[in-house]
User: Fold this.
Amino acid sequence: MTVDLSVQLGDWSWRNPFTVASGTFAAGRPYADLWSQTATTGSADSLALSQAAPLSCLGALTTKGVSRQPWLGNTGLRMTETASGMLNSIGLQNPGVEAFCRDDLPWLARQQVPVIVNVSGHSEADYVAVIERLEQEPAVSAYELNISCPNVDCGGMSFGVDPVAAGRITALSRAATDRPLIVKLTPNVTDITVIARAVEAAGADALSLINTVAGLAIDRRRRQLVFERGVAGLSGPAIKPIALYAVARCHQAVNLPLIGMGGISQVEDVVDFILAGATAVAVGTATFTDPLTVPRLIRDLGQWCQDQGVTSLSELVGVAQLP
Ligand SMILES: Cc1cc2nc3c(=O)[nH]c(=O)nc-3n(C[C@H](O)[C@H](O)[C@H](O)COP(=O)(O)O)c2cc1C
Assistant:
């Protein structure tokens, strides 16, 4: 039986449903080296990794957030483990769009993988400026607007919790590009479908669901909060049920392809997200535990489809509906 893992996000075809979650894969270089070594040593033959272009196994690669100017990120402790997950307070640290174009894009252009640039900013003008700069770069395939980061003061999630602000920033970004425009939403709202409908009406092509869940950690010895900013973003298996709920609700509410993420580490997680309504998935925190998670999941999803007699993933999307 031939299994077709390719998926269709609107007019855009991916060779399989897998991307990496922004901020957990840098611009891909450390993983490309490691995956290439794995291909060379043959220690994981069944992973079908190319030595020359190991990232080409991905449906698409999503970069760390890129902003108009360099961002230093947050000071103090930036990560801590939790039960079944982790909290981070990185604060969207990145060297800015010019450095990204100079240092990362020429390399990314040679990796034979579509590149989604995750865009962040303090203001509407910042988001538009990043997109306008990247429009000059043929190596960029699509944009993912991060309007959902919980651990920055200004920008980030403040756009994603208000349907008017979310719609405006989507419309302005839409006007700046004809490339696919993905908007990444936060679960830290009362009703995510209100935001989803607003960005759909403003011209988004797809939604990424979800960014991290706002959380707190306490340093008991010092009797204070662990993170200087207080709030941090929870990710990993702990948030999977929250993410599935967001995907299932948005699948009912909008007519856009959904990229599901939050706690994916096993093939069963991938299948759950697709059944809930995701067309594609992203893997983040699990890559910190096992850097080969994504290649393993690609292999395992093919095997799972074989075992289940599934010839095309489109058969499964949204089959498990909310009442
Ligand atoms: C260390 C870290 C950094 C992140 N940085 C970004 C970012 O720059 N932009 C963004 O949209 N999401 C960012 N995220 C959120 C992830 O892309 C993803 O939405 C979230 O972690 C849930 O997926 P996971 O449970 O598989 O990690 C980050 C997450 C982590 C753990």
